[in-house]
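Two entries, shown back to back:
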Amino acid sequence: MRRTFLMITGWLAAVSLASGQSLTLQDCYPLAKANYPAIRKMDLIAQTAEYDLQNAQKRYLPQVNFSGQATYQSQTVSFADAMGSLPAGIALPSISKDQYKLQGEVSQLLYDGGSTRNQKELIRANTGLQEQNLETQLYAINARINSLFFSILLMDAQLKQNELNKANLQTQVQKTEAALQNGVAFRSNLDELKAEIVNIEMAGTEYRSNRSAYLKMLSLFIGRELTDATELVIPPADETPDTINRPELKAYDLQKSVYEVQRKDLKSAYLPQISAFFQGAYGRPTLNIIENKFGPWFVTGVRLNWSLGSLYTLANKKNTLLLQQRSVEADRETFLLNTRLDRVQQDEQVRKYHDLIHRDEEAIALRASVTRSAEAQLSNGVITTHEYIQKVNAEHLARQNKILHEVQLLQARYNQKFITGN
């Protein structure tokens, strides 16, 4: 059922993706899970559990056994010796030393001390644990999806800023070309501006190449064809709750429940088992051994089996299961501590990027002012084209830094969501 839900969710996300060229981060998660090869194990776990449950229930089906034997014994009962002297004409039969028996038995379990019920509970508990462990493995995919998704967003933002910088320089190229025609500028000034535009175009080529590579990797993860025209939607920067809802926590709880079912099953080991049976046989001698002939017979009744040998180790087994539960609890507390430490570290990253963005805005405002002054100075011949390009590049670098920090801030927020499971 869980895999079916993932497949339906992935199908809806795929339909959404096919209907338009936009892709959200929330679309990627179910698509990646449904496409990941390990998801096929979910069905295998469920099918195995179904078979195990059916096998456990079959303990209450009638059990049929057949046996046979042919024996020769050195001595048999002598009725003549046991009865002493008899009247004349009366003789007692003797029992043959070679004896034969072919027997079949049908038994029906009536009561097993709750062993079958506990076995089925244990199968269900182990199945839930296996499914949750697989869910934990699949959850780790989200971190890789986040990394690829935000890398593509970073390339998109850098490409956009790169184009803006290129447009600004192209405007300056047009001004310089006009000044060159009027004889108030040198061709070297124009060439230097064009050379800088070439550098910007080279940077754009690198950004597009990186974006294409990240997009192909994301396409492989989600199992859907993504083209360079695919637009990634910037996810909202929501606040992340402090509560921890990681799938590992449920796995720890399920592991403890497995030990709890095993503890309950210890009781059924020292309770009696009751079954009804019917035995039918053919051989020699029959139940009437005096006749010493081949013939059929049957025996039916109720059988009680009660072994108390498990009581010797009962206390130790209970203590072992208790220690295993405590070990799982210690692992759970360790995981929670490490998760909280990761959350604290990520919170600090969020604060750092907030501060950096604030500084970036100050730097951009100052650099933009310097660039505007440099444009006027270049027009008046106060500075060289090379000096002007340095000022423009400094502003461009400040804007690129802000873009980088904004994407890093958004990724840090979604790392918080991943760490806490929210």
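entry 2 starts here
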Amino acid sequence: MLLERFYDDDLAQASYLIGCQATGEAIVIDGRRDIEAYRSAAARNGMRIVAVTETHIHADYLSGSREIARAFGATLYVSGDGGQDWQYGFDAERLHDGDVIAIGNIRIQARHTPGHTPEHLVFLITDGAFADDPGYLLSGDFVFAGDVGRPDLLDEAAGGVDTRFQGALDMFDSLRRVFLELPDHIQVYPAHGAGSACGKSLGAIPSTTVGYERRYAWWGPYLAADDRDGFVQQLLDGQPDAHAYFARMKRENRDGPALLGDLGPLTELSSIEAVAAVEADAAVLIDTRTPAAVRAGSPSGSLAIPASGKTATWGAWAIDPEQEHRPLLILATNQEEADTVRDHLVRVGIDRYAGFITTLDGFTLVPSAQVSPDDLTELDDVFVLDVRNRNEYVDGHVPGAVNISAGRVLRDIAELPSDRPIVAYCQSGARNIVATQALRRAGLPVTELSGSYLGWLQSQDTERQAV
């Protein structure tokens, strides 16, 4: 049996290709939309992808299952469990608890594990050429290394009302019904790692085991004591902010993401063509340079989405393709970087591109407005905006600051004043440049706090030392 993991550090998301080496057949589970990695892996191992499935209706990225099914002529399977309130809206084979997909000598059994979402499935993998019993569990967003999936995303992202409490109860019952019955040795491969917003304390290791999680994960003692109330309270407490774009991902993944086809390379535009397109408002410039470079000077109206780091996440904060219909023009150092940025952005449904450029020649560069921590205290009637996550805000913030995370601030823009100066900050400045450039493009004259929160803390230390 072949099991290959594909990990996207940007979204902290894992997908898998499982293949039978005897028959050369393979299945992809929880795949993304840019599919060349799966094509290359299958070709490298002499396999053909004959099936594709996913664990649930994802909220944090756009599923590539339909893309893979069309590209390879593979059979598409999705969950048919979970009731009628949240079901897939496109044609596919429906899986229910206990159903089995056979890929050569490999058996892939679906188990219904509601909690993170009502329709959630996990997949028990049996390598029939080696054993008669399962040895692996692809756990999706059910169980992570050190954590379980958050049960509040239908409330946070899909317009649900108090579904989080039932979801937490369902998670406890799923753990008891499925996880308690599995032997300790089964290896667990989750769909996310550290940095994902699908849980609050995900580990960074790529896999774990059933026995290790039962013994050492925070939820183990609650399960052992059959303490549902304690489990629910602990699970719901302190979950991270859900990004605003999660609602769009949920809808599109439920209804069926648009099919991309062959992405191909982006077209390089000349400086004259690029300036003309941007000045005519026929394209939106995406500045992928470092935050420091953008602060030093970037074309007016451009968006800052650094090419290194959380490109897909930051892109989804700054661009809502349901509202922004102009194609994107990517500033990158070369063709490879431009195509890589595009590949990351299509993972969150940002699909329209005018091409790329490698220089800002011909553009007028505008530096980002900044105010020092010392000068901040001299401003009258200022609105201080903290775009960090709420747990960071609770741990400490600039006095009087209002917390709206960078992943939600464009959706909640009505909460920002139009008649007061706004000064924004994050922890070190990376998230802040994404948020402030997007807010400026939306028409708000936002100023950055120089050095962000770390700079402000340093200024306070300097003041104390001076006293």
